Structures are given as structure tokens and as C-alpha cells.
Amino acid sequence: MGRPIRFLLDGEVRELADIDPTLTVLNLLRYDLRRTGTKEGCAEGDCGACTVVLGELAAGKVRFRAVNACILFAPMLDGRALFTVESLKQDGALHPVQQAMVDHHGSQCGFCTPGFVMSLYAHQREGAATDSQSLKDALAGNLCRCTGYGPILAAGQAMGPDPESSEGLAAALRGIQPTEALQAAEKVTRYVAPLTLHDFAAAVAANPEATILAGGTDVGLWVTKQHRRLATVISLNEVAELRSIDDLGDTIRIGAGVRYADAAAVLVELHAEFGEMLRRLGGLQVRNLGTICGNIANGSPIGDMPPALIAAGATLVLRRGTEIRTIPLEDYFLAYGKQDQRPGEFVEAVIVPKIAKDRMFRIYKLSKRFDQDISAVCAGISIAVQDGRIAEARIAFGGMAATPTRASACEAALIGKAWTETTVRAGAEALAEDFQPISDMRASADYRLQAAKNLLIKAFLESSATIRVLETKAVGHG
Q1: For the whole model, what pTM was predicted?
Q2: Where are the domains of the chain?
Q3: Check whether domain 240-353 has CATH 3.30.465.10, yes or no
């Protein structure tokens, strides 16, 4: 064990030493710190009963993030402030969020209530909007089996502005920022959190079999659900160079440490379709930890972002030591569980082209539940039309094959043809050449193929309707 893990709990510096680096914050709270207000519901980041709030410095100010304690490893607290439901007590009085929950009868059986309170607390401290839709998005990662959402939303609207100042907390956080890499080891697990990109790349090159940890929204489940013992974990969370978003002119470069919540505004600027996708990608707790590049690197065939990014023409930056190479994103996925990633290499960034305003661009997600559900089919569709003909088509699907994949036969059936429903329907039929989907618990093979066809046709009909409206307005009839 090197230096201890240092974090703030209720404003006091806490230190952890000689712990299992994959100990979850949930278990740390419940079994070591005896803070049992934080509940375990699913242990996989779905239900929100374990929601706690992290405070961390960003551009000199404190960002408050609701996160799932059940899949957050204790070393990830380093240099941050932790708030639990017990933190809200104010000289024996209820916090305004808690009082609003009482006043509006927002608690029924009570099991999920601490998680809802903490999500609302983070929302309040961030100064976020409290209209109904904003609150629904903030609470989508919290599930209540008593169906008490109406009173909880009413409590959110009544909780009022943040009554606390963050200046003292910011000063305290500055005092515990890491100045040397965190290294922890216990029994069979070794954990390293380098501070620079150079040191991170060197650590990965020296430990090619290591587990690279970003948000942990997947890796956490390896521990809590699969009960894996991870030999070496290398965290990229403290590498500032990997947390940057850079405007390169025609493209946007998103570093491997950029979380969904931090990339949302930039992606929405690229196209509004990304905003609707992100609203449904996990709950806010997942988006506050999960990273776009982590979603790519795990190679899941049902990851939500790869189809959209492939359709946008994204490229991937891979690094091994000081060696850097760039490949089209679609070429990264080779087979189920196999990516074009060499030993000691890692995903450093994804580069996304800016989408032309006259380009038809759509992202669709089909799932059994609207909020925070895994896709049955996910589509990214990007088509350029010039002089009434399809000049370029980039169409990608997730959930249709062992990897996120471009629909090459479909694209070939479209390019050069007139932009008509007949053409698009022929392209939709060509999807049967691109995919032979499987049946599983989320959808049957027949459903997946038919749904994929329908989504392409839907994109055409929506786009054509928009064009007709614009043309009508242009001639003075709208």
C-alpha cells in the first residue's frame, strides 16, 4: 500500500489504507462506516437505492454528481467529497430536500427513499431546473416499486434552491487533491491511478493484461455480479489529459476519461439526436460515471453510442506507450468480445466529425422500457442527398450482430439512387443481407430484422415530412 486514499465525508478528511481496491463504496458505507441509510437494491447500478453524491473540483468549482455506490470502487473517492443521506442532517432538523419529501408524502415503503433524496440533493446543489421534465430525467435512475413518482416529483419542485455555499468545500477539496499516483494492493488485487497520460500509458504497456478502469459502470458488475478477482486495475480517472474535449475545427475530440454527463452539451451541439439518445442511456448516476470511450472499449454489441458514432463517421485514437494510431470506429470491432486492440494498447480518444446541417441524421433506440434499459435494436443513420439523389450513406446497427456493424449491403442499395420511398424500402430489404440477428430475452430475430427495416423507413418518412414543411413555408403557405 502506498499513500492512503483521502476523501471528505461531511467535511472531514477520511483516510483509507490496506483495503481491497475493489471494495465498493456501498459496502464501505454499510459495513465499515455503519452508514446504513444507503441501501442495496440491485448491486448493478440500475435501481438507484444506493445513490450517494460525489463532490469534485472542476475548473475551480465543485460539481455535485449523483452516483451508484454499489459499483463505485472505494479508491475512486480519492480527492473527492462523499455525501450520504446521513450527511443531510442540520442540527437535528431535516434538510429542505427531506422536508419536501415529508410534506409531499414522497416516501411509501421507504426503502428507495434515501436514493431519491440524494438524487434530488445533487440536483439542488447543481442548481438544475426543477420543471417536471428535468426532474424526470434526473430521477430516471431511481426506481420506486411503490409507484410513488408523483409525490416525489412534487417534492423536487418544492425543495427550493441550494441553501449551502460551496466555497468552503472547494477549499477543502483543494487541500486533498492528489499530488502523487495512488497505489493500493491487498491480497490478489493491485490498483494504480496515475496522474499523467505518460505514466498511464507506461503502466498499461507494462501491464498488458490489466483491467483499465474508467467509470466502472461495467467493471463494477464484474465484481458485484460475476465475483471476479481482478489482478491489476489501472484507473484513468485522475489523468487530466484524458478528461478533455477539444474542438479541432471540423471535428470534436473526446478523451477517454470524458463522462457522458460532461460530453452531453457538446454532443447535442453536433446534433440534437444525441441529446435524445443520452436521455435514455442509463440513469443519470450511470452517465455521471460512465465514459463514451469506455462504452466503445468494452465492445458490447448492444452499446448505445457506437452505432450513432459510426454513422457520424467517428475515428478512434489508440495508444501504446508513445505510439499512436487512428482507425475508423467500425474497424475496431472484430468479433464478439474481440477488438482491434494490441497488448498494452488503450483507447485514448474518439474523434467525431461535425454533422452538416443539410445531412439527414437519426439515432433510434428500441428497448422494452423507455428509461435506462438495454437496447434490443439501436440504429445510427446518416444520409447525404444531393440533387435528389443519395450521395453518401452511413448506416450502423447495434443488437443486430456480434458487434456494432455498418450495413454495407443496405448502403450500396441506396447510394446513387433517387431519394424516394421506393429506394429506401429496397435498401431496407437489403438489411437481410447484412444481418442474421439472434433471438434472446430482449427480442426475437424476426423482430430485430423487421424493426431495423422499419427504422430506416421511419428515418425517410420523418426527413421527408420535415423537408415538405420547409418547402411549404418557403412558398408562403406555412
Answers
A1: 0.93
A2: 5-172, 177-235, 240-353, 360-473
A3: yes
